[in-house]
Design brief:
Layout: H1 6-11, H2 26-49, E1 55-60, E2 67-72, E3 75-81, H3 83-91, H4 109-120, H5 126-151, E4 159-162, H6 172-199, H7 205-227, H8 255-273, H9 281-299, H10 305-331, H11 335-343
Parallel strand pairs: 1-3
Antiparallel strand pairs: 2-3, 2-4
Bound molecules: zinc ion.
The site of zinc ion (ZN) has 6 residues, from helix 5 and helix 6.
């Protein structure tokens, strides 16, 4: 049997603190149902694709925004906290994307028209697309952890990888696994973007480019919500608590290191999968960061997040490049990652 009911795993003491949401405010319950269905459907299709058995998805009682992947007593478990759907959905609300069309003005006519066409398309919703790309990014990041745990024969019987940065818990192998999970997740977002494009009634290359820019923006917005410490805040007025820059420290690579890794791998795949679009790296960066700027200007009106982002990026760019290269060199020697790359038929040497 591929999927196991969470009630059964509770009775086996494999999982605990399962969150139930059926007796709460219908509006909130709808948000939980949407996330649960999205994760469950994705898990079912990827588990069958990679022949992963004994799987379970559940929502864990915890108000902090977090997601995790774990292998316990032979079961493959992906989970999110009950904080995650509510905190993320609120941050990615429609109202923060009302000015997104302004992203069109930095572009030439066909692209700016494509942004407007998408905006006017009743079958397309910017904020939903951004949310769905973000969900896909998180799901595929966690699923890659499941593959890592299954493709490394040295892994202990019980292992848990979660996404909140633990300070002062550095482990290079863990950083390498996070680096790999981000790369694969960004590639899966690219595939999702194309699947949405394929469903549009009227298609053209300019629209595909716009969707590719928005997909990239969704991932960097997600990472930056953590970088600037706003993701876990429920207040109406958000305050910034930036994660200081570091290299070989803490449980996860620094958000800026992750952002660059995600954008670079996304760009590499965009250019190899869609050479006819002739997207320049600068064009992708300008649009993705442009959308992120419009979003954050609307979310936090009294702070200039993008200038912090660019200043920090500029200040640490050499270190970020160097560290990502080092992580890559380690990644292609990691047994689990090598096996996954082979099974995904991705060339790495
Ligand atoms: Zn992770």
């Amino acid at each position: 049997m591929s999927f196991v009911k969470k009630e059964l795993l509770v009775s086996y003491n494999v999982i605990e603190d399962v969150f139930e949401y059926h007796d709460i405010d219908p509006e909130i319950s709808e948000v939980y149902a949407y996330f649960e269905k999205s994760f469950q459907n994705l898990f079912e299709s990827y588990a069958s694709l990679f022949n992963i058995k004994d799987c379970c998805f559940y929502i864990k009682s915890n108000n902090i925004c977090n997601a995790f992947a774990s292998k316990r007593k032979g079961y493959n478990i992906i989970g999110i906290t009950n904080g995650y759907p509510i905190l993320l959905k609120r941050k990615l609300d429609k109202k923060y994307f009302q000015s997104i069309l302004l992203a069109s003005i930095i572009n030439e006519k066909p692209i700016s028209e494509a942004y407007c066409d998408l905006d006017e398309d009743s079958d397309f919703d910017f904020s939903k697309f951004i949310l769905d790309c973000s969900i896909r990014f998180t799901f595929n990041h966690e699923f890659e952890h499941i593959l890592q745990l299954n493709y490394d024969s040295n892994i202990r019987e019980e292992c848990l990888l979660h996404e909140n940065i633990e300070m002062n818990e550095f482990n290079l192998k863990k950083h390498v696994w996070e680096f790999d999970a981000d790369k694969i997740a960004s590639f899966e977002v690219l595939k999702y973007v194309f699947s949405i494009y394929s469903k549009l009634k009227v298609k053209n290359d300019a629209k595909l480019k716009c969707l590719l820019f928005i997909g990239c923006a969704s991932m960097i917005i997600t990472i930056n919500l953590f970088y600037f410490g706003v993701i876990n805040q429920l207040e109406v007025k958000y305050s910034i608590k930036k994660v200081n820059f570091y290299i070989k420290e803490n449980s996860h690579p620094h958000p800026l290191v992750r952002c660059l890794n995600i954008m670079e791998y996304y760009y590499d795949n965009v250019t190899s999968d869609f050479p006819r679009l002739k997207i320049a790296a600068q064009e992708l960066l300008n649009n993705a960061v442009g959308i992120m700027k419009l979003y954050f200007d609307s979310l936090i009106t009294d702070q200039d997040i993008i200038s912090y982002f660019f200043n920090d990026l500029e200040m640490h760019l050499d270190d970020i490049h160097q560290y990502n290269q080092e992580l890559y060199d380690f990644a292609i020697q990691d047994k689990a990652i090598r096996n996954i790359l082979l099974s995904r038929k991705i060339a790495f040497e």
